[in-house]
Amino acid sequence: MRTEEWQAAERAARVVLANEVGTASLAAAAFEPIAGRLSNFAWHVSVPGQDRFVRYAGAGNERLGADLRAEGEILRFVADAGLAPQVVRCDPSARLLVTQWIASSQGDPFAGNHDRTIQRVAEMLRQLHELTPPPGMRVVDFAVQVRQLQTVLAAQAVRPALAACAAEVLTQLGPGRANALCHHDIHAQNLVTDPSGRLWLVDWEYAGLGDPVFDLASCASQLELSTASTRLLCDRYIRAGGTVELERLELARWAFDYVQWLWYRGLLASATPGPDAIEAAHRAERIERDLQARASGVLRCNNH
User: Fold this and answer.
1) What are the backbone dihedrals phi and psi of residue 121, each rounded to the nearest 5 degrees, phi first?
2) Contact 123, 213 (CB under 8 A)
3) Which of 218, 64, 60 lies closest to 150 in space, CA to CA?
């Protein structure tokens, strides 16, 4: 996003922060931008007695599957379970989310003991999936996500061969098992290890009731886990009481990557020219090449 977009978003966020007593003091504080977010604006904002994460949602996020109202409800629930930072303020109408700031002890949670971190992530996911969610929590069905994201793209932007493969993969996966609360976006930026060594999950924008296999697929895909590391993730998840079938995980990983590809293509459809648009285009191209390379194999290996 361009500098002027960040400046406009910061002005808008300050206005909203100022209109409520609990966040008013943040409105005049220094805003430290958090890089790497392509569809939102986020900052670290601190004043005496308050250390906060502030996010202002980009326009059009809803058509890409985000739901700030649902995110706020889910965040409050998982924060009480000790998995995520506490919500300070969630104002969907103003596109604003404010949470407790979780200081990170290191930039990359996998920079140290890689295998140990994978084990901890597996255990955290199992803890998340074991929770009994409250009534009315939103459902995230990847087949529905695919249809919705495909409608965002112009007809020429949809790759018929990939769309056909996606339809077959989703058919083989079967009806969504929306029986567990899932995060659906497990990557390094969303895994924060604080100075005490505690692991946190942040950014619950796409969370909801879903099939746990997609959390494992998200983790394996976005952390670019090797075959051995993926097996370690699954083994530790099973040892923690979960269930996962490796062949089904491979299908889910391909489906997850297809949804990622559609998401980046949808973002590009409305993005203004600039570094973030270039980055989104590069990511979409890389994922598309990977999907094409894996398409026949994933169906052949799972075609019983």
Assistant:
1) -65, -45
2) no
3) 64
Please, are residues 123 and 67 in contact by the beta-carbon 8 Å criterion? Answer: no
Q: In what helix (H) or strand (E) does residue 181 lie, and over which residues does it extend? A: strand 180-182
Task: Report which residue type is found at 135.
Answer: P
Give Cβ neighbours of residue 32 (< 8 Å, ≥ 6 apart).
43, 44, 45
Are 262 and 146 in contact by the 8 Å Cβ rule? The answer is: yes
Say which residue the tokens 């296999």 belong to: 213
String of DSSP letters for 167-209:
HHHHHHH-S----EEE-----GGGEEE-TTS-EEE---TT-EE
Residue 139 region by backbone torsions, left for phi larger than 0, else alpha for psi between -120 and 50, else beta: beta
- In tens, the pLDDT along 223-269 reads 999 999 999 999 999 999 999 999 999 999 999 999 999 999 988 87
Query: What is the DSSP-derived secondary structure letter of residue 139?
Result: B
